[in-house]
């Protein structure tokens, strides 16, 4: 009996199912109000569900918003609009959002790469992706699934190629990511470099799939919009990288880190920003030294490069003021990808460095998980000030000009014409 149980525990298929369910369970219990009251999040309702409600399906599917096509969110809200009554639409978008949220973990757990072959590594990967990144803003909704697709694209670049069903799943992820956002453009050079290094047809196939998706996005849908910052300075980049990707994951949100972020937010406190820049450069220098001294770890440089490129471009094209990056609950969609990739780089180090280095990395991983556990539940969104969705639908059915209140802050409201009910 014990031997049979041990074999079940060691079976990768059972492990994968359990760890995916475990991650989904904790994601859901962090925001119980999402399921108790149901939720639509900002533009998820105002723009995407509204389009799905009033437009012909094909037009809504290829509607460009905020300067690019978001095929994944368009599709998710279309599925919700046409599959269930309006009363249950938020549950469909929430479930779709959850599935995409689990996608990066699914790729890691189903790969046969050696560095993810042990039970310890698989458990660490699950806990790191679940607990460490600031993911609340992107969680359990379909509006930001493009960011989970982008993270998945970064992971696919590192993992070995497959000839199984995963080959086709990865190709679908690549093309959908490219026509659901702009981050795929930034990863094309890295995919090209990986193609040249690997010299395998399957890697070439991945590069050209991503390339074709980017051509479609750029040629037919991309346009520059004036509400983005289009501003970049190296000291802003280093300050944000050090504060949000190093300080917060390792020390969490508390009085001291809140004070530190507040000082960085104060544009007159130049000494805090310069100190952060210096410490960030030292940290990056040590990481590069590890790549130099331990050649087996060098593959994970793609994690680092992806993190730096995506964060830098997010800062450049962010909506809103750059000081928002120093507010813990704001701009999480721009931050969590780089946080996730740096965690995975550390996990890769724990497999490839020297014995002492492996011990240090494992200690750091355990510490990140410990701090992340408290961070994970420190912030949540509730339904305190909003009328429950079901009540709003009933009010709308009796009064067709009723204005729906949506989650995500004051001012997010939506109207729907009654003739499409």
TrEMBL record:
The chain crosses the membrane at residues 12-29, 60-82, 88-109, 142-159, 171-192, 204-222, 234-252, 272-292, 299-327, 333-351, 363-381. The keyword Transmembrane helix applies. The keyword Protease does not apply. It comes from the Bacteria. Keywords: Membrane, Transmembrane, Transmembrane helix. This is Glycosyltransferase RgtA/B/C/D-like domain-containing protein. It comes from Commensalibacter intestini A911.
């Amino acid at each position: 009996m014990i031997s049979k149980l041990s074999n079940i525990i060691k079976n990768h298929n059972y492990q994968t199912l359990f760890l995916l369910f475990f991650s989904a369970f904790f994601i859901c219990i962090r925001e119980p109000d999402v399921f108790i009251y149901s939720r639509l999040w900002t533009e998820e309702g105002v723009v995407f569900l509204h389009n799905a409600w009033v437009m012909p399906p094909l037009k809504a599917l290829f509607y460009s918003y905020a300067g690019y096509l978001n095929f994944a969110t368009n599709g998710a809200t279309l599925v919700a609009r046409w599959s269930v009554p309006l009363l249950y639409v938020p549950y469909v978008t929430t479930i779709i959002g959850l599935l995409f949220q689990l996608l990066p973990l699914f790729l890691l757990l189903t790969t046969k790469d050696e560095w993810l072959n042990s039970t310890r590594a698989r458990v660490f990967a699950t806990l790191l992706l679940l607990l460490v990144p600031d993911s609340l803003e992107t969680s359990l909704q379909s509006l930001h699934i493009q960011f989970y697709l982008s993270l998945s694209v970064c992971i696919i670049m590192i993992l070995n190629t497959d000839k199984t069903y995963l080959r086709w799943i990865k190709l679908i992820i690549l093309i959908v990511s490219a026509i659901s956002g702009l981050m795929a453009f930034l990863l094309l050079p890295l995919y090209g470099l990986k193609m040249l290094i690997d010299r395998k047809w399957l890697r070439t196939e991945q590069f050209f799939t991503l390339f074709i998706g980017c051509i479609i996005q750029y040629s037919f849908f991309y346009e520059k919009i004036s509400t983005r910052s289009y501003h970049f300075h190296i000291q802003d980049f280093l300050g944000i990288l050090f504060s949000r990707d190093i300080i917060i994951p390792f020390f969490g949100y508390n009085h001291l880190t809140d004070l530190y972020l507040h000082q960085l937010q104060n544009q007159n406190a130049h000494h805090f920003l310069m100190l952060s820049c210096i410490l960030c450069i030292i940290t990056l220098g040590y990481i590069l030294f590890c790549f130099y001294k331990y050649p087996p770890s060098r593959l994970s440089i793609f994690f680092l490069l992806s993190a730096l490129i995506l964060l830098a471009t997010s800062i450049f094209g962010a909506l809103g003021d750059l000081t928002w990056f120093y507010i813990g609950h704001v701009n999480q969609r721009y931050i969590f990808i780089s946080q996730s990739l740096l965690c995975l780089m550390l996990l890769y180090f724990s497999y490839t460095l020297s014995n002492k280095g492996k011990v240090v990395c494992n200690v750091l991983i355990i510490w990140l998980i410990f701090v992340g556990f408290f961070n994970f539940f420190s912030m949540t969104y509730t339904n305190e000030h909003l009328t429950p969705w079901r009540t709003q639908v009933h009010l709308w059915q009796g009064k067709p000009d009723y204005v729906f209140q949506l989650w995500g802050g004051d001012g997010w409201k939506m109207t729907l014409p009654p003739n499409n009910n």
